[in-house]
Amino acid sequence: MRYLVEGNEGESVFLSFNAYTENEINFETIGTVTINSSGSAEGDLEDGNYSGYQLQASSFGGDNPSITLKLLSDGDVLGEIDEPNNDGIYIVEVGEIPEFDF
Fold this sequence. Notes:
Blueprint: E1 2-6, E2 12-20, E3 25-34, E4 40-44, E5 52-59, E6 68-73, E7 76-81, E8 90-95
Antiparallel strand pairs: 1-4, 1-6, 2-3, 2-5, 5-8, 6-7
């Protein structure tokens, strides 16, 4: 599993990643990534026997970025988004995301 952020060179976003099974959530803070001169930033995500995935990106130190956020597996795009939600957060979800009662 990989992430890909496309946008303007120098834009920075804060990324986090959730992986779900039927009974648990695995949360990973990726941290701040900055889009390079080729217009993208990418990296690996934890693989496992998960049924659902959620990748989140939010602005870091400035205005909301204009980005496209993608989840990839073996080079195939599993999900992507290019518009933030009302809170200014880009969220890509793929697979089954269970509802937990906390």
